[in-house]
Specification:
- The structure holds two protein chains of two kinds.
- Chain A is mainly alpha-helical.
- Helices cover 72% and strands 0% of the residues of chain A.
- Chain A is built from eleven helices and no strands.
- In chain A, helix 5 runs antiparallel to helix 8 and helix 5 runs antiparallel to helix 10.
- Chain A starts with a helix and ends with a helix.
- In chain B, strands 1, 2, 3, 4 and 6 form a five-stranded antiparallel sheet that branches.
- Chain B is an alpha+beta fold.
- The longest helix of chain B is centred in the N-terminal third of the chain and has 28 residues.
- Chain B is 56% helix and 10% strand.
- In chain B, helix 1 runs antiparallel to helix 2, helix 1 runs parallel beside helix 7 and helix 2 runs parallel beside helix 4.
- The relative contact order of chain B is 0.10.
- The chains are: A mainly alpha, B alpha+beta.
Chain lengths: 212, 443
Amino acid sequence: MEQEEQIRKAYVEHVLENGTRPPSVYAFAKKLALTEEAFYGSYNSFDAIEKDVWKGFFDTTLAKAEGEEVYARYSVREKLLSFYYTLVEVLKANRSFVIFTRVGSDPRAVATSRPLAAFKGAFLTYARELLAEGTESREVVPRLFLSDRYPDGLWMQLMFVLNFWIRDDSKGFEKTDAAIEKAVNTSFELIGRLPVDAVVDFAKFIYQNRPN
Amino acid sequence: MKSQTSIPTTKVERASQFVKTGIKIGGNYLKHYSRKLVNPDLSRDELHEDNAGDIYESLSQLKGSALKVAQMMSMDKNLLPKAYSERFTMAQYSAPPLSGPLVVKTFVKYFGKSPGQLFDRFGLEAVNAASIGQVHEAWLDGKKLAVKVQYPGVADSVTSDLRMVRPFAIQLLNLNERDIDRYMAEVGTKLLEETDYKLELERSVAISEACAGIDNLVFTRYYPELSGPRILTMDWMEGKHLKEFLKTNPSQAIRNRIGQAMWDFYDFQIHTLKTVHADPHPGNFLMQDDGRLGVIDFGCVKVIPEAYYEKYFSLINPDLMADEVRSTRIFYELEFIVAEDSPEEIRFFSELFKTMINLLGKPFHHRRFDFADDAYFQSIYEFSDKLSKVKELRESKSARGSQHSLYINRTYFGLYSILNELRAEVTTHKPAWLTAQAISESL
């Protein structure tokens, strides 16, 4: 554990100072006074380090958000808002690294970019938990076929927020705050009860009670 | 509080909001003129009411500085037909709430701590909305506090909002573009200042300390250590807003006491401090049952330039008005009349402004003045209605009146209309040099 953290720190530092990855695992390990073999004991590539750093962002964010005393009392919508706000705070301290791993230039590239793989997995699990909780609290309305896509929808929303944040040039990233507020409110309007649900429900009723 | 599901933010969205309003207003005019074909006696009141409703609706969805401009216009009853101003005064009481997590985030951003860590108890649900933020309740060491939190990005949107309000202002206020730009610059600076809670804190403390000697006036205590650029913490003040207060049927003595406190507060600020709380709309005052007046929200403060002050207030003194040469010179200096004016125009506008000043200065010409005098207010409305229809004034290519007058006039109109609603009779204290020789002897 100790060694992995040391490797991650050294790697991020190298990337930030040089703007490139280290030339080789050998050179990187040597600087850390490690053998190449010892390095592979922790990580098998630079990609794996980047993935782990991103996963670390997720874990820190969730721990921080959940550590907030009011979090448990929040509605699902507020929990997600709180997660996003905490995430941008966490990422702010690592903005250069985030930009280095090149989230942002192309939204599609982001969604599939390798460094975010573990981060994505963790987020989807979290999103599913939130949605399940939301179904219970009736903030989320289950819909045939669509419900399975909700977590992916939230992932795309997160990517939107990330990209917005990367491009945001307002003081203190204030516009990102506004973007988060609006994005989350909109999505919860959509996955909540809509007028169309009432229409479908009514149509179904009429159909089932049609005169023979 | 009914929360809006979304606030249009991007420039395009905001602009389309205005376009929609424009179309609706066009429709209202169409309706008006087609009806007028049938009934030539039709007054414009209904048209104004329709327009006011539509404009208000659109502005209230925009929030931020557009809302502020609506508020400003609502105060300037002299510039707007009555129907507009009534709809607009409603603008003071609506805004969309921030989500709980965003409030927490704002705290973390400026203090590195969440509200739960800073206060013993903090109500995440806003209890009150201001035009650019919202108010939360909090408790610390057994004391109830009021915490104002600002919407993110308000300062950014001020400039672009104003640019979009501009064409409407030209239409509504019958002002030409040069006037508007000068006035807009003045309003713009004030609005930007309002988004700076640090400045507000400094000014609140300075003004409340300076005014500590005035009877029946109460201020809240501010907590600089719990305030920042977007957060302002102060003691919770008890009291009622004007409308609720009037529902409790306060006695005439109580009304007079509150009215007197308000008059003295403004008299002292304008003539002694030369720095004035320039936002006297009912939402900024809390009235207490024992006749004390609480002042909150020092967001909008106007510093009156010395040179302007002397000229503007010297007009109040009837002795000066009788002096043709001196009054004409001051009219020039205050830009009521300009160099390009023909002799007829000079005579016309001088007469017009003299009537206006006489009318507005009336409370100054008495030792005590009864603001319950509705006839007086009706004459003001009638005069301003007449003013807005004066062809010469509307077609005049020149700016009339200094931009400083904007906030000073607004302050007086706010003050007068609150006192009128309060139906208070007050002793109109004023500096001695504002009183005519003949009058001051008889007093």
